[in-house]
Amino acid sequence: MKAIGHFCTITRHKLLVMKHCFRVGLYRQGLLHDLSKYSWTEFKVGCKYYQGDRSPNNAERETTGVSLAWLHHKGRNKHHYEYWIDYGLNGTNRMIGMKMPVRYVVEMFLDRMAASKIYRGKAYTDSDPLQYFLKGGRENYVMHPETKALLEQLLVMLEEEGEEKTYDYIRAYVLKEK
């Protein structure tokens, strides 16, 4: 039964992100979003650690000390800022966040909004994605400053202005500045 629950959760999430992506004109990204979750590497972990109210990757990490499913996922999905972490050019061998293309920052924002809706259910509010971001501690994210600023701007706009105005802003300004 965990397999069915997991399949339904990831499919509902994928369809919701697709709907959000379509609203802002990111059709290809909407169609391709999170397809790696259906790969055996990620799907088997999702089935084993499925709980329904949070990511099974966190449960795998708590149990084994590492989430192999997450390592697989983040390396194949450009809407995760972790995909964009690399060595800096300053010779210190320090890992830094590279600037993400705007379309992937938008997809990351929409992904966070959809995940909050899936996991929070009827209790969801437009402040949930921002609160989740802040809970992680904005200083802890290894993210390029411009990427982080845009993501946070969109999360704050969602909280203060709602979905429709945020979609309008993304279409009219964010995606037009490529």
Overview of the molecule:
With 178 residues, this protein is mainly alpha-helical. The protein has one domain (2-177). Helix content is 62%, strand content 3%. The chain contains 9 helices and 2 strands. The protein has a two-stranded antiparallel ribbon. It is globular and about 45 Å long.
Tell me the layout of helices and strands.
Blueprint: H1 2-24, H2 27-32, H3 40-49, H4 56-64, H5 68-74, E1 85-87, E2 95-97, H6 102-120, H7 128-135, H8 145-161, H9 163-174
Antiparallel strand pairs: 1-2
Helix pairs in contact: 1-3, 1-6, 3-4, 3-5, 6-8, 7-8, 8-9
Could you spell the SSE succession in H and E letters? HHHHHEEHHHH
Low-confidence stretches: none
Largest sheet: 2 strands, antiparallel
| Helix-and-strand structural type | mainly alpha
Total helical segments: 9
Q: Order of strands across the widest beta sheet? A: 1-2
Number of domains: 1
**In percent terms, what proportion of residues is strand?**
under 5%
Strand segment count: 2
Overall helicity: 55-70%
Distance between the termini: 45 Å
Overall radius of gyration: 16 Å
Look at the structure and give the mean pLDDT.
Answer: 95
How would you sum up the global shape?
Answer: globular
